[in-house]
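Box 3.1 A note on notation
Throughout this textbook, protein chains are presented in two layers. The first layer is the amino acid sequence; the second is a token string describing backbone geometry. Keep the layers aligned when reading.
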Amino acid sequence: MDDKLMLMIPGPTPVPEAALLALAKHPIGHRTSEFSNLLAEVTQNLKWLHQTESDVLMLTTSGTGAVEAGIINFLSPGDRVLIGCNGKFGDRWAEVAQAYSLQVEKITAEWGQPLDPQLFQEKLEADTEKQIKAVIITHSETSTGVLNDLETINRYVKQHGEALMIVDAVTSLGAVNLPMDTWGLDVVASGSQKGYMIPPGLGFVAVSPKAWEAYKTAKLPRYYLDLGKYRKATAKNTTPFTPPVNLIVALHATLRMMQAEGLESIFTRHQRLMNATRAAIKGLNLPLLTADSCASHAITAVAPSSVEAEQIRAIMKKQFDIALAGGQDHLKGKIFRIGHLGFVSERDILSAIASLEVALRELGYEGFTPGSGVAAAARVFAQS
């Protein structure tokens, strides 16, 4: 059946009707008072979502562009940076930093395992000459479904005193508590197609006063991604370049939806969806890639051993029009990932798990009792 696609991937995520209708409107001029008034409200609501009084800036980029902007605006060639690498996106930030001639030191963990905060503590405490200028962490590692212990790592960064805390929050913002000001985070980058519940195309960078001080002396090249331009324009409720007007109109709608739900309710909903998904996978006797103690609220990675991950994804897509994400790099073909981020409800989880049970049976997997996955998820929902 046409037009029944169900996105259960970590991005793009499902888009609510209010945002779709906003996208369908005639564009308005981005230099008009009408747009400026809308942008003013969006900016205030972005600060609410980030739990900050600092600047939150919008760029016409993907999440990668937002993180790149968050790196290049505050550093200079040759600066020493620590980067946590335990998945596809941690590795990507190391590549970006190396492309800009930064002195990169990786702190690694096996894909599917969390970063060890103590390794950051040791590096930072040993840096008595304060040469480390930034620590770059992926909060929710989308490629594996690991939630890294940002709060603890950030505490060691604060004790260091000099280094900036730069965060890839692409699949954590809007899914898990990330209090920028309370924790003292310096740069928080994210993308529109995740917890924001709108299509790809907007990147967001929140910037602390400490980071703006570093901006004054940073020497890496930048123009379109020069956040100083965005800061000046945002203060006047405008943009430095032509923005994707209708995406911002849609964002206006989804931020209002999020405010109506409330931050605590949003975080609780995502945790409930994560718990139900993981319970269902355990009920089907399928191995999870990550431990419960470090599980992302946005994405669950499953590592089946007796059935092929890509065959599961193929049946889910062909027979049920449900899109699951595959593995990346060396995990390609070895895992599949279930997204439960953004505009996702309990009904979506139950539908996806029921369809997954059928797919597993069609592939000859008999390691579960029919209905056990759905029952396990339903028990979580009944208890919460």
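The chain has a mean pLDDT of 98. Residues 263-383 form a domain with the Aspartate Aminotransferase, domain 1 fold (CATH 3.90.1150.10).
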